[in-house]
Structure prediction request, 357 residues.
Amino acid sequence: MNQSGEMPAAASSENKSSGSWFLKGMLAGIPICMGYYAVSFALGIAARNTGMNALQSFVMSLTMVASAGQFAAIGLIGAGAGFIEMITTTLIVNLRYFLMSCSLTQKLDPSMKPVHRFGLAYCITDEIFGLSVSVNGYLHPFYTYGITFVSVSGWCAGTVLGVIVGNILPAAAADAMGVAMYGMFLAIIIPPAKKNHFVGGLVAVSMLGSFLFTVLPVLRSVSSGFRVIILTLVLAGAAALIRPIPSDPDEEEEEQ
Amino acid sequence: MKGNVYLALAAMALTIYLVRLLPFLFLRKPIKNVFFRSFLYYVPYVTLAVMTFPAILTATAHPVAGAAALATGLVIAWVRGDLFATAIGCCLAVFITGLFI
Prediction:
């Protein structure tokens, strides 16, 4: 990790807390790591079935860190798709990260070193974004790096093991670990929903909308990546029209 | 499988990274526009809720186990709001339900 090497020794206060933020991030990342391990195992098995070896799969997981995106990538490589198709599909499947990056820029300290923008961009996944955006006040980049370090380790290890040994985890344990991520999501969205009834309503409507997308005839055929994008644009947009946030949302939250 | 796998991986990885990076490069200042700010404030809640439900029901071998995880997660998140406790609680709910199915 060269992030720490980029910090000049003189930047004292930020430096002192960087280590503890990194550690804090690593602890917070444990549930993500567990969930990632289970998912990336399946990914590794899929990669092996396509004919990819352990090193290729490792490189893929380390450089992409995207679940749906990588399943799509494996399919494209297996089908011998052309570069145009690869790039367009990748763009569409991963478009939600664009929204998440937009959202996370608003949590950054204006005095943060610009180089961290390149580091943080690598860290944007559904889960790491969810944790990072939920901190109070400005986000310390090393908190996100800590989460990412632990999560991506699990992600890569799971992928490689999936390729090499197939399913060594007992099915019951893999099954149980797979829901850790969802538990974490609930822990992020439910406490604010409890405090703020408008957010609570928004969460309920979002879940209902997501459910409808899996049962209604035409909507059913929409891929999960697009479902996230459509519902996020429509529902977060509607929420912003109905209940605009006048000042700093974090301050307001604390006052309530 | 044909062509160079590493070349294909590089093209796709670069695409994903650019999707993630562009907002960081172009949104340098706090956004003043009230609508856009509010929209971005609500984004995580909608996104995470959409990704959690109903996916949690199909994440396990049996939907009942997923439902147990959802119920457990909602209760712990509501009462304690603790990230790790909620995640572990969900896992235990699936594991225990699995013993009875």
